[in-house]
Design brief:
Its EC number is 3.1.13.5. The chain is α/β, with parallel strands linked by helices and 420 residues long. It has 22 helices and 6 strands. It folds into 3 domains: 215 residues, Ribonuclease H-like superfamily/Ribonuclease H (Nucleotidyltransferase, domain 5), CATH 3.30.420.10; 93 residues, HRDC domain (DNA polymerase, domain 1, Orthogonal Bundle); 86 residues, HRDC domain (DNA polymerase, domain 1, Orthogonal Bundle).
Length: 420
């Protein structure tokens, strides 16, 4: 841990001079591979990857903002001795054969929490993980995007102009495929550079614990009341209008799922909030709201009015509460009045975590989840000491390296915040 306290960090971002020096990757080393789109070609890819050695670089392209859900529309892999492969998971929806072929090899992903769910949908489930984005966070990098980290650590540039395109399109343009292949071209080299830095800073075992925790995390449960995350909902001031947001949101989601398009392309969040705030009574009034002029929104004007009218006709008991019920502490801004002793504990705990995070050079949220700190301050163990705080954090998913760094200082901070 002594090395970690002196972890080397260079938050300097590549500037114009760096951009001139760093060459732009333009072509995969072995050329652009054909897209694998049938069983025979997939068997060849499985065989080639099985014959390779070392870690396997993996990436997935989705159609966020275009299609409903987060399924993969292209999967890229690369391994030493195997070269790169591009797989169409629409044509080849079951990639489970790769799990045996890779035989427990380490899979290298950038921002694994984004790609693991869609890889799981096609039955590609890594046994071991190295997450280059998470490694960058543990090392204290100010920016952890793939392009930045490749340029910073490998002095190479990746073109990113196709990062937000519609990957569900078929056939995929050649320049998109080249972009996708290059995303795994140097991922292993990036992994090696980051592993070296992690080892030098004393954080390698911490990173391994984090990677294992990412893999072991259960699938996310569907969010309760997902409509409450509608952008701009804070402008909605009464329960009946909140009910209109809810009704419009669920109608939009149903239509988006049926049409397999992104919900925002059916009806923007701003349109939901505006209609819920003004509660129009007719399709003509609704059509007067600018956002309802887009093609799909206009097609369903009658549907939207029916949703608003359902909210208008609801009994009071059917209306949603202004704030979603939760199982955690109340909002922090209420603590000073409701529980001043908890507010003092939180202030001391936050200061302690911030200080440790600065010492080990990483974001506070990677050292310890803010929710865990709040819950500890609101409802600490009956007897506050190193062991009880450690168990409290462990029950909430903290890893052993996090507990080792924070449990004792937090116990001291909590005790110090109590009135004499």
């Amino acid at each position: 841990m002594a090395n970690a306290l002196n972890s080397k960090t260079d938050s300097r971002e590549p500037g114009d001079d760096d951009a001139e020096r760093a060459p732009l990757l333009r072509e995969p080393r072995e050329g652009l591979p054909e897209v694998t789109s049938d069983a025979d070609a997939l068997a060849d890819v499985v065989s080639a990857l099985s014959a390779g050695t070392g870690p396997v670089a993996v990436d997935a392209e989705r159609a966020s903002g275009y299609r409903y859900g987060q399924r993969a529309y292209l999967v890229q892999l690369r391994r030493e001795g195997s070269g790169s492969a591009l797989i169409d998971p629409v044509a080849c929806p079951d990639l489970s054969a790769l799990n045996d072929a890779l035989d427990g090899a380490e899979v290298v992903l950038h921002a694994a929490h984004q790609d693991l769910p869609c890889l799981s949908e096609v039955n590609l489930r890594p046994a071991r993980l190295f997450d280059t984005e998470l490694a960058g966070r543990l090392l204290g990098y100010q920016r952890v995007g793939l392009g930045f980290m490749v340029e910073r650590l490998l002095n190479l540039r990746l073109a990113k102009e196709h990062s937000a395109v519609d990957w569900s399109q078929r056939p995929l343009p050649e320049d998109w495929l080249r972009y996708a292949a290059l995303d795994v071209e140097i991922l292993i080299e990036l992994r090696d550079a980051l592993e070296t830095e992690l080892a030098e800073s004393g954080k390698l075992e911490w990173a391994r614990e984090e990677f294992a925790a990412v893999l072991a995390a259960p699938p996310k449960e569907p969010r309760a009341d997902p409509w409450r995350r509608t952008s701009g909902i804070h402008r909605v001031r009464n329960q009946r209008s909140l009910a209109a947001v809810r009704e419009l949101w669920y109608e939009r989601d149903r239509i988006a799922q049926e049409r397999d398009v992104s919900p925002g392309r059916v009806l923007p969040d701003a349109a939901i909030v505006e209609a819920a705030s003004t509660m129009p009574r007719t399709t003509a009034e609704l059509a007067g709201i600018r956002q309802y002029g887009i093609k799909l929104a206009r097609r369903y004007l009658t549907t939207w009015i029916k949703a608003i009218n359902r909210a208008r006709d609801m009994e009071q008991a059917e209306l949603p509460r202004p704030n979603a019920p939760g199982d955690g502490p109340p909002p922090v801004n209420r603590w000073a009045d409701r529980a001043p002793e908890a507010a003092r504990r939180l202030e001391a705990a936050r200061a302690t975590v911030t200080g440790i995070a600065e010492d080990v050079v990483m974001p506070t949220e990677n050292l310890l989840l803010p929710d865990s700190v709040r819950r500890l301050a609101w409802s600490p163990p009956e007897t506050v000491d190193h062991e009880s705080v450690a168990e409290f954090l462990r029950e909430r998913g903290a890893r052993e390296w996090q507990i080792g760094l924070t449990a004792e200082p937090l116990a001291t901070a909590l005790l110090g915040a109590e009135p004499e």
